Recover the amino acids of this structure.
């Protein structure tokens, strides 16, 4: 019994090691950052003009006053700039806040009416639901509340 207790204590001590605990934040930042970089690149690689489906969307609040092309470029640019910031750990909390705004606008305008769809339908019209953006939002919330961790360009202070 003592050996089991000793093994458990060593395991818990290892998990509490700050060098190991920040690996989770690093993995989360790398995944979320590359997802947003890719999304922004995909948007802007087609040009600065919004596609037809995007032009017909109803945007919330003051974004409704802006032309669709400007909303398209701002979303793509924000995803690239903030995605890169999260990826390298530079002002990660501010970048997470910016990406949370972009994500919630996307959920509100595009994904919510399409329902709860997940990974297994992601490459189909049924896969455009809000489950995946919501999971990304939860990742961003973690970065917003925890910072970028020790493995970052700008180590966040607690």
């Amino acid at each position: 019994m003592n050996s089991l207790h000793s093994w458990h204590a060593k395991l818990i001590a290892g998990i509490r090691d700050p060098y190991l605990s920040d690996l989770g934040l690093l993995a989360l930042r790398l995944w979320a950052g590359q997802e947003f970089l890719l999304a922004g690149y995909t948007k802007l690689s087609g040009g600065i003009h919004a596609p037809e489906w995007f032009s017909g969307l109803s945007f919330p609040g003051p974004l409704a006053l802006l032309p669709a092309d400007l909303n398209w470029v701002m979303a793509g640019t924000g995803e690239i700039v903030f995605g890169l910031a999260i990826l390298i750990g530079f002002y990660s909390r501010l970048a997470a806040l910016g990406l949370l705004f972009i994500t919630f606008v996307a959920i509100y305008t595009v994904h919510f009416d399409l329902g709860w769809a997940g990974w297994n339908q992601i490459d189909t019209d049924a896969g455009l639901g809000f489950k995946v953006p919501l999971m990304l939002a939860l990742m961003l919330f973690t970065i917003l509340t925890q910072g970028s961790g020790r493995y970052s360009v700008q180590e966040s202070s607690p």
